[in-house]
Amino acid sequence: MERVRFGVIGVGGMGVAHATLIQRVEEAVLAAVCSASAERTQQVARQFGVPGFTDYRRLLGSGMVDAVLIATPHPTHAEIALCAFEQGVHVLCEKPLAVSVSEGRRMVECAQKQGCLLGAMLQMRTEKHFRIARRAVEEGIIGNLLRAHTIATWCRNEAYYRSAAWRGTWSGEGGGVLINQAPHHLDIFCWLVGMPRQVTAQVRTRYHQIEVEDEAFALLEYPNGAHGYLYVNVNEMPPARRFEVVGERGKVVIDGEQVAVTRIAPPIPQYMQQTEDMWELPVTESVCLDVSAGEQGHEAVIRNFARVLLGREERLVAPGEEALWSLELANAIILSAKQAKSVTLPLDGEEYDALLAGLRSTSQEKPVAQELRRTDPNIARAIRMEQP
User: Fold this and answer.
1) Do both 189 and 82 map to the same domain?
2) Exposure of 32 in the CB half-sphere (CA atoms within 13 A)
3) Does 169 share its domain with 186?
4) Inter-CA distances, 26 with 88, 300, 381, Å
5) Are 70 and 94 in contact (CB under 8 A)?
6) 337-351 residue pLDDT tens
């Protein structure tokens, strides 16, 4: 295999963006597209000059693709991926990996059983400031975790939720801000500090006429006794992105695209016990870390996936096993909030499935006069910027 033949399943706004990027990756070739809408399939197939399918099963069984990029609504991810693995087709999946952690676990297990690659489109891992923060953690600059804190906010209006019948419903989306907007942010948080052992959370729908949450907040407890706080919503302007990871030896703060790494000397436990002057404080110093200038964004994830398949790189940017982290945390927050109790991780997948089934049983699809398929303008601008 010289180039990976990709099919894109789901060619709404984001799927078309991925098809565009695949054509820019030297190690890949766009081989086919698929949409449940015959009209949309014809339109996009003509746009890219490739065969079009209206049934993903036919695409997967056609022998025309080595891998597929799944960009359909979240609740269909697992079904399509499992079918792909049975056909020996590799999968790069848009976030979230699935709607429930039990589905995600089945995807990971099936991929391993069939010898297929499962990756997730978690492109924030490629961004320089997050890579610097990750390096600070990996090199032990932070030390034993004391506290972790994160805030992420977006702004989404009613027009956004009215753009498709599946948006903002339990049956069509399987969750709100935690499942749709926050997976990238939750992924970075888990990537930096690991998984908590206990989650105590609340969710609510504050401003929107939707079934799912537009706001969520959680208290977290980690295996070593450290505590954390997480807050996300789609109700704020200007948007906020902040992470704080505080340890016994140092601290990392990410605010927007700015990252600051600080070393503490002596480490906090040693300082507490050995410093004789009651007002003397530990010395803090800024640490300058750098990482190699690499490709960033969606295109970097697609290229990495293709190179791993071709044997030119060893490890995926975001393997399926790690994409489970953010999904499990989102499920845990929803379960804790809906059941008004603290939830222990690893999450009981069957308990969450039962909760989700109950929420879906009363879910109602919204009437939509005309569905709109438009790529997020920020992503569209980023794709244009990534052009060679």
Assistant:
1) no
2) 24
3) yes
4) 23, 12, 21
5) yes
6) 999 999 999 999 999
Residues 315 and 331 in one domain: no
Q: What are the pLDDT digits (tens) for 11-53?
A: 988 999 999 999 999 999 999 999 999 999 999 999 999 999 9
Structure tokens of 282? 């530990």
Element (H, E) at 244: strand 235-247
pTM (two decimals): 0.94
Place of tokens 């948006």: 167
How far is Cα 335 from Cα 177, in angstroms, rounded to an integer? 15
Q: Which of 215, 212, 195 is nearest to 327 (CA)?
A: 195
C-alpha dihedral sign at 290, 293, 299, 304 = negative
| Cα torsion 7, 9, 13, 14: sign | negative
Average pLDDT of the chain to the nearest whole number: 95
DSSP-assigned letters across all residues of 321-358? HHHHHHHHHHHHHHHHHHHTS-EESSP-HHHHHHHHHH
Owning domain of residue 300: 4-124+296-319+370-385
Strand partners, 200: 219
pLDDT at 388: 42
The torsion angles phi and psi of 23, rounded to 5 degrees, stand at -65, -15
**In a shared domain, residues 45 and 194:** no
| 343 and 225 co-located in one domain | yes
* pLDDT for the residue numbered 269: 96
Q: Are residues 37 and 186 in the same domain?
A: no
- Number of structural domains the chain divides into: 2
Q: What is the mean pLDDT of residues 195-220?
A: 97
Specify the CATH number for the domain of residue 184: 3.30.360.10
Helix axes of 298-309 and 13-22: crossing angle, nearest 10 degrees:
60
d(CA 229, CA 220): 6
* CA-only gyration radius of the chain, Å: 22
Tokens of 378: 């920020």
Phi and psi at residue 248, to the nearest 5°: -70, -20
The identity of residue 241, as a single letter, is R
Paired with 258 in beta bridges are 255
CA atoms within 13 A on the CB side of 143: 16
